[in-house]
Structures are given as C-alpha cells and as structure tokens.
Specification:
- The chain has helices spanning about 1-25, 30-95, 105-125, 135-155, 175-225.
- The protein is mostly helical and about 230 residues long.
- About 85% of the residues lie in helices and about 0% in strands.
- It is rod-shaped.
- It has one domain (about 65-225): Four Helix Bundle (Hemerythrin (Met), subunit A).
- It starts with a helix and ends with a helix.
Length: about 230
C-alpha cells in the first residue's frame, strides 16, 4: 500500500513538472518578456533616482537665479522712479499749477531742461540692468519722448538767454522773429510733450511689472516642485 501511495505521489509530481514544462514552453516568449521587463525596472530604478536628484539640483539653481532676477527688477524699477519718474512728476505738477495762458516760464523751462538732461543721460549710460526685449524697447521709446520734451523746453527758454547779435550770433530779423515765435508756441506744446513722456514711462513700468509677475509665478512653481 505504501509503495502504491509513493508511486502515486511520484506520478503526481512528474505530471506537475510536465505541466509546468508545457506551460513554460507554450508561454516562453511571454515569460522572457516579463523577466526582461523586471530586469529593466530593477536596472532603471537607480537611474530614476539619479534623474530625480539632478532635477532637484537644477530646480535649486533655477530658484537662486529667479530670486536674483527678482532683486534686479526691483532695483531697476526703484532707480527708474528716482532718476526719471520723480523728475517727470515734478514737471507735471508744476504745469498743473501754472497759469493756463503761460503754462511754464522760461526760468522753469531752463531748470527742468537741466534736470531732465541728467535723467536722459542716466537712461543712456547709468542704467546697467539686463532687460527683456520688451523692456528694452520701452526704455528706448522713453528716451525718444524725453528727447522731444527737452527740445520743447529748450525752445521755450532759449530766447531768454540768446541775443540776436553778439559774439556767437548774428541772426537776421526774419529768423529772429521766427525764433521768438517758436519759443512762444513751444509753451503751448510742453504739456503734450510731458504727457507723451509720462505715458512712455508708464509703459516701461508696466513691462517691468509684467516681468516681475512672470518671475513670481515661475518661482512659485519651482518652490512647489522642490517641496513636492
């Protein structure tokens, strides 16, 4: 009886092995593919970890760059307000209080000419921050508008310190009349010139604000990636 039971067990094991062998034979391609995928997964895990670490390091570097750029934009905006904006605002305020028939005197035109000449010199040589193309274009536009304003101011105050005939001038009567008339007409143009310069200044500020907002949004995303 024991021998019969043992033979049965052996036959069962043999049948099981044969079944496993048949299964392996029938599905050897699928099994090989599964083993290959498992091996690839195990091999890729260190690479994924390395890629994740590299991405984290890149985000850290990017975060520092964004923070530095934020400071640059803030500094540029503050310097622009101090060196240009405040001067335009002062002239705008002056025009608001002058008599409408004569919006600005020759004396005030000369003083503001000197002040804004320093502003435009700073815009050309003293402004040292890096700019996006949109900000650079707006700055060039502002320089052009202030140049036009300076020409208007000069036309207003030039007759007050120019003689028709002296060591440096010998102006014909016809040209002298036109010169004086230009000074008077410029007084009525200065308001428009200031308005155009102020609008260009506001456009430059708006471009800076747009960049500041874009930096803020991007920095938020980088912070979320680092924390995540």
């Amino acid at each position: 009886m024991d021998g019969f039971l043992q033979a049965g067990v052996e036959w069962g094991l043999l049948a099981a092995l044969m079944g496993i062998g048949t299964f392996i034979y029938d599905y050897q391609t699928l099994i090989a593919g599964g083993l290959a995928l498992a091996a690839a997964y195990l091999a890729a895990k260190p690479v994924w970890r390395q890629l994740a670490l590299t991405q984290t390091q890149s985000n850290g570097v990017l975060r520092e760059m964004l923070l530095h750029r934020q400071v640059e934009v803030q500094q540029a905006r503050a310097a622009l307000m101090e060196n240009v904006g405040s001067k335009l605002f002062d002239l705008e305020h002056l025009l608001g209080w002058e008599d409408e028939a004569e919006p600005i005197s020759e004396h005030d035109a000369f003083g503001n000419d000197q002040i804004l000449s320093q502003s435009i010199s700073w815009l050309r040589t003293g402004y040292h921050w890096r700019d996006r193309s949109q900000v650079e274009a707006a700055r060039v536009e502002l320089i052009g508008k202030i140049d036009a304003l300076l020409q208007t101011l000069e036309a207003i105050h030039a007759p007050a310190h120019t003689d028709q005939h002296d060591e440096d001038h010998s102006i014909s009567d016809e040209d002298w009349v036109a010169f004086l008339a230009r000074g008077e007409s410029a007084k009525g143009e200065v308001g428009g010139s200031v308005g155009a310069a102020r609008a260009a200044f506001n456009s430059l500020l708006q471009e800076m604000e747009s960049e500041a907002e874009a930096l803020k949004e991007r920095l938020t995303k980088v912070n979320e990636a680092l924390l995540g």
